[in-house]
């Protein structure tokens, strides 16, 4: 049995199994994600996932359209258009990487 608490230490629930990091579960209509585990005292910390509509167009980092999670490691993802599972809520979404190329030039020597 694992006790699940919030960052502030408030009790959320008790799980009848050993959770893995980023496991999601729902209690009374609220969905949580496990973000820390202490196997020594059989407890874990979880945070609420807030589902909604998020601005995901032309952003610096990939943002999950389900929960708004900003993934700072998205530069490691496969280029072009693909699907990805969110690192927070684990819901699937598609992404498209946009690349902009620019050039700077400088003279070499004189132009006599």
Q: Could you walk me through the main structural features you see in this protein, from its secondary elements to its overall organization?
A:
Helices cover 0% and strands 38% of the residues. The protein has 112 residues and is mostly beta strands. It folds into 2 domains: 2-48, no CATH class; 62-96, no CATH class. The strands form 3 sheets. It has a 5-stranded mixed sheet with strand order 2-1-5-4-3, with no helix packed on it. A two-stranded antiparallel sheet has the order 6-7. A two-stranded antiparallel sheet has the order 8-9. Strand 8 and strand 9 form a beta hairpin. The N and C termini lie far apart (83 Å). The model has no long low-confidence stretch (mean pLDDT 92).
Helix content percent band? under 10%
> Strands of the biggest beta sheet: in what spatial order?
2-1-5-4-3
Largest sheet: 5 strands, mixed
| Shape category | elongated
List segments where confidence is low: pLDDT < 50 over at least 5 consecutive residues: none
* Spatial gap, N to C terminus: 83 Å
User: Treating each run of at least 4 consecutive H or I residues as one helix, how many helices?
Assistant: 0
Radius of gyration computed on alpha carbons: 21 Å
Mean pLDDT across every amino acid position:
92
Find the structural class using helix and strand composition: mainly beta
**Estimated share of beta-strand residues:** 35-45%
Could you state the order of secondary-structure elements as H and E?
EEEEEEEEE
